[in-house]
Every structure is written in structure tokens, then in C-alpha cells.
Amino acid sequence: MFDYKLLSALAAVVEQGGFERAAQLLGLSQSAVSQRIKLLEARVGQPVLVRATPPAPTEVGTRLLNHVQQVRLLERDLQRQVPALEEGGMPERLRIALNADSLATWWAVAVADFCAEQRVLMELVVEDQEVGLKRMRAGEVAACVCGAERPVAGARSLPLGAMRYRALASPAFIARHFSSGVTAQALARSPAIVFGPDDSLQHRYLATLGVEGGFVHHLCPSSEGFVRMTEGGLGWGLVPEQQVSAQLARGVLRELIPDRPIDVPLYWHHWRHGGELLGLLTDHLLGAVGRWLVPLQR
Predict the structure, then answer these.
(1) Residue-wise over 132-165: b if at least 16 C-beta within 10 A, else e?
(2) How many alpha carbons fall within 13 Å on the CB side of residue 65?
(3) At 125, is the pLDDT very low, low, confident or very high (cuts 50, 70, 90)?
(4) What is the extent of the structural domain holding 227?
(5) Beta carbons of 167 and 203 less than 8 angstroms apart
């Protein structure tokens, strides 16, 4: 049988990004957390953590983390069925990986009623939509919103819809860099704004215009900061249209190539045996997101 105190220590170290914060979460000393990890490794006969900064699970550690995620959700179902098992009546905390643009636009309004009705707290891990699935693969989250369609082993993937992005810039930036008109070549020579090293959206957009290869760009790992930098004239960027409707209406931002958006598909991934709570959240999302996302093109 598993010793869930040992598994909880492993989950805390990975989720909190280190032994010190894991110890604070669990109300233990760092040495006690370290001893629990060592005892777990002794029982499974191999390392469960790569001692790096931050610590990362090994292959067997990932399997154990996946198990812990699912057990937590199944325990919540059992507590609802047997109220005497509830401890303190604290709301469940659901750990979900989510891309920053969804967080900045539709996510909060889509899940607010669900969280209130089900007494759920969210712990969100923000990742670019291109790489969010790695958090599930590592066993760190119970579900994720990302751009990958294919699920990891033991999980389901369901299409949510697509976020529509438009290439925008400030009037001052347009006057400075596109005095002779906006062309694909001029775009490639002008500073762009990119969310992070894993963000390939601008690359894909330029590819649709016939431009391949690198281009000059700022890096800005903040959805709100991305918009502020675009408004400030530091570069052009692809921004969710629902995030900047007011700026477009006021002329603070302008579309570089009219009616040339790019849609980014989003998929909801969750563990197949994640219990009733994940199933309810899945049904809720599928019924709600049509208000904010455009249908996927097949």
C-alpha cells in the first residue's frame, strides 16, 4: 500500500518548486520533507526527484504524481458521499494549467459560477498555450487549457474553440515603420512583441504571409504587459481581439492588415479518472465557452 504522507511530500515539492516552500505548506521542517522523499525513494527503489532548481520528477516520480492528482479528486467525491469524512469543511483546491491570454480574457467569467456553486478554489499555473500540456505530463495539474489536441496517457482531450488574434500596432508605430504601407517584408523588419521563447504565434502569422525564418522581437511574458507594450509603440503583436475591443474602438490600436486574423485552437485536457468534480467542470466549460471562443475549423 502507498504511504500518502510520502506522496504528499513529493507533490508539495514539485508543485511548490522546492523543499522550503513544500515544508511551509505541509507544516514540517525541510529536513522532515527531505526524509519523506528519501523514504519514498527507498520504497520504490529509485529516485523520484531530480535535485535541480526547481526540483523535477523522474519518470517514476511523474507516475506517482499523476496518481496523487487523481486520488485527491476521488477523495473529494468520497467526502461528499460520506460527510463524516470531511475535515474542516475547507473548499477543494483544483490545480489547472492555463495560457495567459485565456486568463486575461474569458476564463474568470466562464468558471466563476462553477467555483461558487461547487466550493472550489483554483490554483492556476500559467503557461503558454503551446507548452501547457507538459504540466499534466509531469503530474503537476489535474487539467489544462492548451493548444495541443493529443492528450497524455490516461487523459482526455476535448475541443473548446479558438481564440481569435489580430495583428495590431499603435498609430505612432505604424507611422514610424510602415510609411509606405504594411507589407510582409516590412513586418518582418519591424520589432514585434512575443510572449516568450515557446510562443510561435507571430512566426505562424508571418508564415501565412510568405515570410519564413527569424525576426526582431521583444519578449514580454505578460498578457496585460503585452497589450501595454503594443499601445506604447514598442512593437507590433498578435493580440486576442476580445482583450482590446475598447482600444480598437478608440483608435489606440489599429489592425495592420484588415480582416487577416489568425485563430488559435484551445483544448481542455483532464484525467479520465479524475472524479466527479473534473467531470462537472468539463461539462460546465463545454457549455459556456461558446460565448467567448469561435468554433474550431475542421
Answers:
(1) bbbbbbbbbbbbbbbbbeebbeebebebbbbbeb
(2) 26
(3) confident
(4) 163-262
(5) no
For the record, the C-alpha cell of 186 comes out as: 516590412
Q: What is the pTM of this model?
A: 0.79
Pairing mode of beta strands 143-146, 120-126? unpaired
CB 173 within 8 A of CB 237: no
Give the pLDDT score at 176. 96
- Using CA atoms, how far apart are residues 290 and 225, in angstroms rounded to an integer? 26
Distance, in Å, from the CA atom of 244 to the CA atom of 296, rounded to the nearest integer, reads: 22
Tell me if 230 is assigned to some domain: yes
Distance CA 48, CA 45 (A): 9
Grid cell, residue 123, equals: 490554483
Q: Give the start-end residues of each E strand in 153-251.
A: 155-169, 192-194, 217-219, 237-240
Structural domain includes residue 85: no
Verify cis geometry, omega within 30 degrees of 0, for the bond prior to 151: no
Q: Is 178 part of any domain?
A: yes
Cα 88–Cα 90–Cα 91 angle in degrees, nearest 5: 155
pLDDT at position 66, please?
Answer: 77
User: With contact defined as beta carbons under 8 Å apart, do 226 and 269 qualify?
Assistant: no
> Does residue 206 fall inside a structural domain?
yes
